[in-house]
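hey
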């Protein structure tokens, strides 16, 4: 079964941290670039970060630069999004996605998507 599963979301206070995981099954994540996205209620889906398959290239949305870090552990077939200094406006469902050939393509170009994990930042 080809699948991506996000985990690690939850409720956190402003200024807190969470680490999201994106575990792949049924395919080798090391052969794919990864994107992290989020969608808040009433908002458009937005890309947060991309990591190339060889980890040579990264991209971060300006609003998360310096706070979020994307990484991958190919031995675990897992990609991570470390989120620090969280703000209420970070509240959203967070998704990971994998794409075989391209780095940071448009969202509809991704091959596989996870089902999302809820992140709520509130005091």
């Amino acid at each position: 079964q080809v699948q991506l599963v996000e985990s690690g979301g939850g409720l956190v206070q402003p200024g807190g941290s969470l680490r999201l995981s994106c575990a792949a099954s049924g395919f080798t994540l090391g052969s794919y670039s990864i994107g992290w996205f989020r969608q808040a209620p009433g908002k458009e889906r937005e890309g947060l970060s991309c990591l190339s398959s060889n980890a040579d290239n990264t991209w971060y949305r300006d609003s998360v630069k310096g706070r979020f870090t994307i990484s991958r552990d190919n031995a675990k077939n897992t990609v991570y999004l470390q989120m620090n200094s969280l703000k209420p406006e970070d509240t959203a469902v967070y998704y990971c996605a994998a794409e075989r050939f391209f780095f940071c393509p448009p969202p509809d170009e991704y091959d596989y998507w996870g089902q999302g994990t809820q992140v709520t930042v509130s005091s």
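The radius of gyration is 13 Å. The mean pLDDT is 96.
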